[in-house]
Write a structure and sequence with these properties.
CATH class: Alpha Beta
Number of domains: 1
Helix content: 25-40%
Number of helices: 3
CATH topology: Erythroid Transcription Factor GATA-1, Chain A
Distance between the termini: 55 Å
Bound molecules: zinc ion
Strand order of the largest sheet: 1-2
Number of strands: 4
CATH architecture: 2-Layer Sandwich
Length: 123
């Protein structure tokens, strides 16, 4: 059995569809559920892990589950949807990621100066 998280599953309620497959998506958040994307946990009777999933409307979910798209399109839309869903989960703290604090880079347009007394480089 894959990893199950009721918080991740419940987070899909009322969300916009992250698959947004042109010509298929119904763009109705009322139909959005957590759509599992095939992963290594998925066997004959197992569902994929809950983190291998994306917010999807009924129409996109059906199209993915029934393999109505080419393999390339299915992979593209599934990966994009999962990345969009992960962005939401990380921003809400549902998945915690040790993100680096951005450091300001010294501008290459400003020439380094030296301190008059110590001779140290000043940026
Ligand atoms: Zn959709």
């Amino acid at each position: 059995m894959g990893i199950v998280s009721s918080k991740l599953r419940n987070s899909a309620k009322g969300e916009i569809c992250t698959f947004a497959i042109p010509g298929i998506c119904n763009h109705d958040p009322e139909t959005t559920v957590l759509c599992h994307i095939r992963d290594e946990a998925k066997g004959l009777s197992n569902k994929a892990n809950d983190y291998s999933a994306a917010f999807g409307c009924y129409a996109c979910h059906t199209a993915i589950d029934q393999h109505r798209l080419s393999k390339e399109d299915e992979l593209f839309y599934s990966l994009r949807a999962m990345q969009r869903t992960w962005a939401v989960w990380v921003s809400r703290g549902l998945i915690v990621m040790p993100v680096d604090v951005p450091r300001s880079k010294p501008s290459s347009k400003i020439a380094a100066r030296r301190h008059i007394a110590s001779g140290e480089t000043i940026r």
